[in-house]
Amino acid sequence: MKKITCIAAVLALAACNDAPSEAPVAEETMAAEPTEAASMAVDGNPSAGKYKVTGADGATWDYEVLEDGTYTVTGSDGTTVTGTWTEATPGAWCETPEGGEEACYTETMNEDGTWTATSNTDPENVATVERVES
Predict the structure, then answer these.
(1) Structural domain boundaries enclosing 72
(2) What tens digit of pLDDT does each residue of 61-101 get?
(3) Contact at 8 Å (CB) between 108 and 91?
(4) Overall pTM surpassing 0.90 (yes/no)
(5) Beta-strand relationship, 92-97 and 60-65
(6) Is residue 26 part of a domain?
(7) Residue 81's CB: how many other CB atoms inside 10 A?
(8) Across the chain, how many H-helices and E-strands are there?
């Protein structure tokens, strides 16, 4: 009987040691919201900024390109147009004026720090772009 009591006591003690302790509480972590990378212009700087655009005919436009995907352009004659823009990759600029159709351009860097924007639908439509302010 002593053996059975002793074995029962050992088994009871072992059962106490194997009893699950309070499980550790998993830390809740907040998943980081994905951030959209700022688009980059062909010069390696963010697309948002101020630009002077000069057409082949000498006409100029002042562009203010905002991070929120909108822009305002003021022509040398004082007319103002607003719209939206995208630049999926550096050198692939697309703009859509309010009430108008999207126009896309391929941009290439020039040695003097300006770049040339060539219309994807009309290769004769070429302009020089100069960053005025980042």
Answers:
(1) 49-133
(2) 999 999 999 999 999 999 999 999 999 999 999 999 999 99
(3) yes
(4) no
(5) unpaired
(6) no
(7) 16
(8) 1, 8
